[in-house]
Each structure stands twice: as structure tokens, then as C-alpha cells.
Amino acid sequence: MVRARQVAVLARELGFDESKPAVEIRGLRVWIGGSEILKGVSATIPPRGVTVVLGPSGSGKSTLLRCINRMIDLVPEARVDGVVRVFGVDVRSVDPYELRKRVGMVFQIPNPFPHMSIYENVAIAAKIAGVARGRRELDEVVRWALERAMLWDEVRDRLGDPPSRLSGGQQQRLCLARALAMKPRLLLLDEPTANIDPENSKKIEESIKALVREEGVSVVFVTHSPHQAARIADYLVVVYRGLIVEEGPAREVIESPRHEVTRSLLSGAM
Ligand SMILES: Nc1ncnc2c1ncn2[C@@H]1O[C@H](COP(=O)(O)OP(=O)(O)O)[C@@H](O)[C@H]1O
Ligand SMILES: [Mg+2]
């Protein structure tokens, strides 16, 4: 098993300080082509919890997430202004590849590597991130990640199969396992259950909650579902038309929303 000490060393390479907020966003503006997609947003996302980013389609949720792990660098014509810090570290001050090893991401559409086996899909991530040395450690990390993603029991007898043999929901859990195999301290999930069935969605939600509770991971979970937000959020950030209209402890925001947009979103009217 990869020891806690080893994981802490990996995160320290980047200078992560987990006593700081998981993410601090200050005056973030993003333009793509001629349009202003994020219009000067600020937020402080606490560590060791699930922060849900809620907002209707097109409001800038994915763009916000992409600024956290600098995937925005890969968007042609995107221009970014403002500051994003992860555990106290300005994401602009570090190598984006190193950053993405410690800040995992899962996307809306399951995207396992089609030409690799189930085992290799997870193992490659552990290898790239340098969290395992030798076959035995690698096997342990792969098993740990698949267990954490609540997939191990379903694939343990067919680790050599291609991911195409799995259902969509299983493939998404494989992608979660792949992200976890890098031992990230921050996990970004962009509507990870939007395209899978309720049974699989539930497994992903449970897996995320356990990760936070038992491994102290910090999670930013994008969704447009108020029901999902109510189930999993410790902290809630509401995005609308490129602005953060409200943020706070989830219970407070849900029980007494201050903004009209939040009320509409929570009632399902938007
Ligand atoms: N690569 C891109 N090129 C052009 N426009 C983009 C790109 N990415 C996002 N946008 C635009 O930015 C706005 C916000 O998009 P996005 O962040 O994906 O919103 P959400 O995730 O909330 O649905 C949308 O109007 C979208 O069309
Ligand atoms: Mg999106």
C-alpha cells in the first residue's frame, strides 16, 4: 500500500499546504474568442469536503474547473486573468503536468483508454504520477483505486479485458479509479454522473463521500442537479452567466438561499 507519508511527500513537491483552502479563486476572468465567459469571480473552497458547483448549462462551470488544473491552457483563444491557488500554491507558478498529477479530474463522458486493459488504465496513472515502484506496489495501488471507486468486485476476475466490455457506468468508475491512482489531494469532477444510470451514479456519490471522510481528499463536484447537490455538498458555489452568485456551507445555502437564481435552481425551475 502507498503509505500516507509517501503521499504527503508527493503533494509537498508542489508545495501544497493542506491547512490552506483547497482552492482560492480571486478576480478570475476568462475570455474565449471575443466573449467573456467568467466575469471576475472569487471563491474560497474549504479543504477536506465536497464542494458542489451548481449552475445551469452554459454558465461557465466547466471553464471554472479547467482554470483550477490549468486545462484552460489547452483551449485555443482562451485568455485568463486573476489568480487561482490550490492549497496555497498559485497554479501559474508550477508545471501544469505536475499540477495535473496531484489534481485529478473526471469528465462528463467516460473516457477510458480504449486500447489498454482495465488494469493498465489504472496502472498507467499510478506510474505517471510516480506513486508505485515495482509490480507489487503497482498491483496494490490498482486494487486500492478500484476498491475506492467501488468497481473492484466487478472487475477483479477480468482485469485484462478492454474497458469496452464494461457498461458506461462501470467505465466512468474506471475513470474515477484512474484519477485516484495518482493519489490526488484535490479531485475535480465535471458532471461525472450526467450520462450514467442512477445505480452507477449512487456508487460514484458514495465513493466520493467515503474518499473525503476516510482519505481527507478535497473534491469539487460540478452538477446541474439540485437533488445531487443536496445529497453530497458540504459547501455550495452557485454559478450563473459567468458569475458566482452565491456560495457558502451547503446547508445554509439550501435552507435559506439569498439569490433569486439559487432559489430557481433549487426548486428545479431552472
Ligand atoms: N472552447 C470553447 N470555445 C468557445 N466557447 C466556449 C468554449 N468553452 C466554453 N465556451 C463557452 O463558454 C460558456 C460556458 O461554457 P462552460 O464553461 O462549458 O459552461 P457549463 O460547464 O456551465 O455548461 C458557454 O457559452 C460556452 O459556449
Ligand atoms: Mg460543463
Write structural notes for this entry:
- The structure is a single chain.
- The chain is α/β, with parallel strands linked by helices and 270 residues long.
- α4 (118-129) packs across α5 (134-148).
- Helices cover 40% and strands 24% of the residues.
- The mean pLDDT is 94.
- It contains 11 helices and 10 strands.
- It has helices at 4-13, 61-68, 96-102, 118-129, 134-148, 152-155, 168-180, 198-215, 226-232, 250-255, 260-267, and strands spanning 23-32, 35-45, 50-54, 78-86, 89-90, 103-106, 186-190, 218-223, 235-240, 243-249.
- The strands form 2 sheets. Strands 6-7-8-3-9-10 form a 6-stranded mixed beta sheet, sandwiched between helices. A 4-stranded antiparallel beta sheet has the order 2-1-4-5, covered by helices on one side.
- The termini are far apart.
- The chain has one domain (4-267): Rossmann fold.
- The site of adenosine-5'-diphosphate (ADP) has 12 residues, from α2.
- Magnesium ion (MG) binds next to α2.
SSE topology:
Elements: H1 4-13, E1 23-32, E2 35-45, E3 50-54, H2 61-68, E4 78-86, E5 89-90, H3 96-102, E6 103-106, H4 118-129, H5 134-148, H6 152-155, H7 168-180, E7 186-190, H8 198-215, E8 218-223, H9 226-232, E9 235-240, E10 243-249, H10 250-255, H11 260-267
Parallel strand pairs: 3-8, 3-9, 6-7, 7-8
Antiparallel strand pairs: 1-2, 1-4, 4-5, 9-10
Helix pairs in contact: 4-5, 4-7, 5-7, 7-8
The chain binds adenosine-5'-diphosphate and magnesium ion (MG).
Magnesium ion binds near residues 61, 62 and 190.
